[in-house]
User: Which sequence fits this backbone?
């Protein structure tokens, strides 16, 4: 049998910076999503997520979220960590590991200027989805610098200026 299929879905979300070391977020994932082919199609259930990210030390992130599946009474718990690091003046990287309701997930990220590429290996909660390799491309429109990874790697005040050239690395008002 052929176990390969393709699909499409949309995600929407919002993030709020509660403090210099804490972000909060909400998201709806897999809106209007389907996977399959002309002969058989499966609807992918929508996930609603509430999460938080804690930045305890330079380059490290610990995050957690609770996911609720559409039309289901249960909830899923996720926790993970990231180590972000600079690999040159305009190039950043990140390594990520986590648990998704007891299932392993891991990945890497590479960022340069205003574009970021992400790869993740995820064991999905739905049996028909199995395990997946996810690829992501993020474009930061209106940004002069790529803030996602660079701000966590060597930038204590998260103002986008690396600590080694920041005149006041603990004050974000540069």
Assistant:
């Amino acid at each position: 049998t052929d176990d390969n299929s393709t699909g499409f879905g949309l995600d929407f979300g919002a993030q709020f910076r509660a403090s210099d070391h804490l972000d909060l977020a909400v998201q709806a994932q897999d809106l209007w999503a389907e996977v399959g082919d002309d002969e058989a199609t499966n609807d992918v259930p929508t996930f609603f997520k509430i999460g938080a990210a804690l930045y305890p030390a330079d380059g490290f992130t610990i995050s957690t979220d609770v996911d609720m599946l559409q039309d289901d009474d249960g909830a899923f718990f996720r926790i993970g960590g990231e180590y972000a690091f600079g690999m040159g003046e305009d190039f950043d990287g990140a390594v990520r590991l986590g648990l998704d309701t007891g299932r392993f997930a891991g990945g890497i990220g590479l960022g340069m200027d205003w574009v970021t590429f992400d790869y993740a290996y995820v064991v999905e909660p739905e049996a028909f989805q199995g395990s997946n390799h996810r690829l992501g491309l993020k474009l930061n429109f209106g940004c002069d610098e790529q803030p996602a990874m660079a701000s966590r790697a060597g930038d204590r005040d998260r103002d986008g200026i690396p600590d080694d050239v920041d005149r006041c690395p603990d004050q974000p008002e540069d």
